[in-house]
Amino acid sequence: MVTSMIDLMEREQARSSGVYLKRDLQIVRGEGAALYDAAGCRYIDCVGGQGAANLGHNHPAVIAAIQRQLNDLISCPELFHNPIRARYQDELCRAATNMPRVFLCSSGAEAVEAALKFARLATRRPNFIAAMRGFHGRTMGALSVTWEKTYREPFEPLLPGVRHVPYNNLERLTEALDDTIAAVILEPIQGEGGVHPAQPGYLAEVQRLCHERGALLILDEVQTGFGRTGSLFAYQHDGIQPDLVCLAKSIAGGLPMGAILIGERVGPLPPAAHGSTFGGGPVACAAALAVLEVLQTTDLIERAARLGAAVLDHLHTNRPAGVREVRGRGLMIGLELRGKVAPVLRALQTRGVLALPAGSTVLRLLPPLVISEDDFWQAVHTIEEVVNDAF
Ligand SMILES: *Cc1c(COP(=O)(O)O)cnc(C)c1O
Known about the structure:
This protein has about 400 residues and is of the alpha/beta class. Helices cover about 40% and strands about 20% of the residues.
């Protein structure tokens, strides 16, 4: 059993492209916020499918919805109408408030690509403003608005006309926002860039500036969406109305899916301006409809707000010596360490806790929102011990 596991890990490594640095761990099963390896060892999951598992692993409502849909129809391109897609689009737009339309795709990067294209179409302007430390995906357009130079440099030249300004800095944004800017694209909380939340009032002021200067506001909620920060979408904390909202990760209970919500300020989009073969597929729509229903009929979102606030409060008042700063909102939490995060992640894994990095010194927690309080506090206390040992 163990030999075959090691053999399979080696074979997987040999046949992989090489772009992933895999951990020395083979995951075979998940339930709620627990993951299991081939030997049956249980791990408390604070990776949460890298943000794709807000409802936890193998949520029964998602499984049931997928199974029902599999019996009817698996693929249905958007040249036909489809009832489950009709229901999902309607429910998603209603949940987002004042978002009359939506385009469906299959991933976060695709959602960002589409948002950039829609913004150019709607404004007939060429340029974009994005934020330093921002992350929006790995395809050429999404990469162009992403900040991290190690992701970008090998692939240059990228899209011209992208201006990166410091996040939470209105002065620099005001200087950069001229009449060539189609849109400003921001994450409400920067995820990959180190878990940096927008300061109160920042996004509202960015929105005001965009309106004043005829630009669109694109919010990338790929990581912050679907209850993660304690509201369905993070922008709803701020009472603002973005023009385009990019969604993916937890949208369909772990199935690949993305979406772009389209606001009133974006005019009608001409036929054939964009498209996707898999976008709006009925299985993904069925799963996504189930996700929305669970989020709307349970207290998971409120619980994420409450549990996240309690843990953040605890970590702020009892900040371990090895932690420089604690940031986050809801169940999106980052600990800025005084040293490298990689050895901390390895030590946590040996103690049954899986977590994420965000850059080289930030420990990031994205547990499924269904995580039990006991499991989450145990993960937090293990982190405190490991960090205290490490630094
Ligand atoms: C993960 C992520 C993306 C990219 O999503 P993919 O599905 O991996 O293409 C884009 N934006 C943000 C904020 C993300 O966290």
